[in-house]
Amino acid sequence: MQIAGRRVTLMGLGHFGGGAAAARWLAAAGAKVTVTDTAPASALVDSLAALSGAAIAAYHLGGHQQDDFRQADLVVVNPAVRPDNPFVKIAISCGIATTSEIELLLDACPAKIVGVTGSNGKSTTAAMTAAIFRAAGRRAWLGGNIGASLLEDIGSIRPQDVVVLELSSFQLWHLSPQARPVDVAVVTNCTSNHLDWHGSWADYVAAKQRILLRQRPEGLAVLNTSDAEVCTWADRVRGRVVPLVADGQIPPLAVPGRHNRVNARCAAAAAMAAGCSLEAVRAGVADHRPLSQRLESLGVVAGRRVYNDSSATTPESTIAALESVEGPLWLLAGGADKGSDFRPLARRIVLRASGAAFFGKVRHALYDHLLHDDPRFPCAAVATMADALAWCWERSRPGDAILFSPACSSHDQFQNFRQRGQQFAERVRQIA
């Protein structure tokens, strides 16, 4: 893609670093970059600081301007931008090409790429895959939706390296037909998620399947065939399907839960298909430690085992957490609804938890679902995460577990799930 001298509108600077990285990379490549975001500068302090020294032509913050989408040569769209955004439609109607930070990376990357997607478990699976390659002596780069843009590392990535990318449904949806396909595609599962963004289950599934449909015939695909939806996708694969590694070949893991053993089997299949040995698989997954805010143990506080699972933004993720934490446990869950069905989660809470406190916009819906299943179950609908922690803490006893696994989006009360998890950890530190 020719970049030098082109007028590029970067739509959505955001908070996760991808927007800033793309803007810096584009400016360094000689583009005339206009950065635009609906948020004001006061809400983008960290991202703007990351652009200090970059040759950005203009900043249009606090709202978009139509001319930035009519007069550009290229529009780079933040993956959080909805499909029906009117400014994207303006660019398309003017015949202006649109792309994304992840597509820029795909096109520029000289190394083999492993792409990992799924409704749940994709971060852990991507991290495990990178760990296996490193155990095999390969230099592996980990990025994408897991939180780090690799665009600015392109000059250091060698053809013999491997790049492992966690890919969200948003990132996959925004890929153009010309985007480079991944060499190895991994799909961990597919359950209802982000229906508020995609609009329907069919569109969400179609977005996830793009990782398979864009592959070349020599491409490889790892499908978690134990998932009820993904097991039907074999006919969507353009390349060759690679079977999962048998569970008996995977050593004990430092991360709890049966779902993480499935993640490890997916990671192992992808790495072995790309040339890693079984010995490297065993070394890599054995060394893997829980990622931050993914069923992360915060230790024992006043005799209570505390877990931070703020990254659990779906009911299925929280169900997996409930199955993974041993002993009596008290659950904190809630936030903003993404169009999820909470009934299976409510049934699992009644079976596994001693009590639960729900917060945020969905608190009453979760509370009502739970009392429908068991009117005597100890639960409460409270305003904030801090209130939910206080409720659980007062009722728990030494030896119990406190599990923060929201099952929902964070965007009703927090900037993102990371900020939500950080505030939970800070509240626990205050208690300690």
Report on the structure:
With 432 residues, the protein is α/β, with parallel strands linked by helices. The chain folds into three domains: 93 residues, 3-Layer(aba) Sandwich (Rossmann fold), CATH 3.40.50; 185 residues, Mur-like, catalytic domain (UDP-N-acetylmuramoyl-L-alanine:D-glutamate ligase); 136 residues, Mur ligase, C-terminal domain (Protein-Tyrosine Phosphatase, Chain A). The chain contains 16 helices and 17 strands. The chain is globular and about 65 Å long. The termini are far apart. The relative contact order is 0.09.
- CATH C-level class of the largest domain: Alpha Beta
Rg, rounded, reads 22 Å
DSSP, total strands: 17
Oligomer: single chain
What is the end-to-end distance?
A: 53 Å
Residue ranges: pLDDT <50 for 5 or more in a row?
A: none
Describe the largest sheet.
6 strands, parallel
Shape: globular
**How many distinct folded domains?**
3
Structural class: alpha/beta
The CATH fourth-level homologous superfamily of the largest domain = Mur-like, catalytic domain
How many separate helices? 16
Proportion of helical residues: 25-40%
Question: Averaged pLDDT, please?
Answer: 94
* CATH overall fold name of the largest domain: UDP-N-acetylmuramoyl-L-alanine:D-glutamate ligase
Strand content: 15-25%
CATH architecture of the largest domain: 3-Layer(aba) Sandwich
Q: How are the strands ordered across the major sheet?
A: 7-8-6-9-10-11
